[in-house]
Specification:
The protein has 220 residues and is an alpha/beta fold. It has 7 helices and 10 strands. Helix content is 30%, strand content 19%.
Length: 220
């Protein structure tokens, strides 16, 4: 998979994309991630990327030209363009699975007070990561990339994401490791039993109970 990210702040991505599983996925050639500072595409003599809003009001608005030219330099028939914006569709695991099957994703990170409305015409999807406002789309795009890349075949053990929370629309079951008794807190007996059918039943029940208790909305 190829991932291109349009951002005015490329340095924000350094830590996240150069650590742990996302770093290894790139080294193993599972994904190629490139950050593009669309300021470089500005045709303005001072490389301006924003301007004041028509009709007045506070703050600056990202201009069309640099973002259109940058996207058009990257896009092919196979590309899907994702615009990160708080008024997008709330992100969830099923979207991560669907995006992980694409060949080429282009992310547009908005910033400042907003972007020219016509930039939306570039997007195949508009996505939000929750009902709160971030200073820009960078952190949101990192959230999407992380959740998508881990689902690319061979990036992590397949078995790990067969057990993911949300996989069956349910939260994950509780897990434990040694010791069996830590400061009086005991591991459920059934997990020590070696009876795999019983263990499966226990885990399914825990998934259901935990979802009912914490996220009843997921059961609807
Ligand atoms: Cl995608 N962008 C911004 N700026 N804020 C957000 C968001 C995205 N998702 C939730 N809040």
């Amino acid at each position: 998979m190829k991932i291109d990210i349009l951002s005015l702040f490329p340095e924000m991505f350094d830590g996240v994309f150069h650590s742990s599983i996302i770093k290894r996925a790139q080294e193993d050639g599972k994904v190629e991630i490139q950050i593009h500072n669309f300021r470089e595409f500005s045709l303005d003599k001072n490389k301006k990327v924003d301007d004041t809003p028509y009709g007045g009001g506070a703050g600056m608005v990202l201009k069309c030209q640099p973002i259109f030219d940058c996207v058009e330099s990257l896009r092919t028939e196979k590309s899907k363009v994702i615009l990160l914006t708080p008024d997008g569709v709330p992100y969830h695991q099923k979207m991560a699975y669907d995006f992980s099957k694409e060949e080429h994703l282009i992310f547009i990170c908005g910033h400042y007070e907003g972007f020219d409305e016509r930039i939306r015409t570039l997007a195949d999807y508009e996505v939000s990561i929750g009902d709160y406002v971030l200073t820009g789309g960078e952190i949101a795009s990192m959230v999407l990339v992380d959740s998508i890349v881990r689902l690319i075949p061979g990036v992590i053990e397949e078995e790990s994401h067969l057990q993911d929370s949300f996989r069956d629309g349910l939260l994950d079951y509780p897990t434990y490791t040694k010791p069996a008794n830590f400061r009086g807190m005991e591991v459920p007996e059934v997990l020590l039993s070696g009876n795999h059918q019983k263990i499966d039943e226990f885990r399914k029940e825990m998934m259901y109970n935990r979802t009912k208790e914490r996220r009843p909305d997921l059961l609807k």
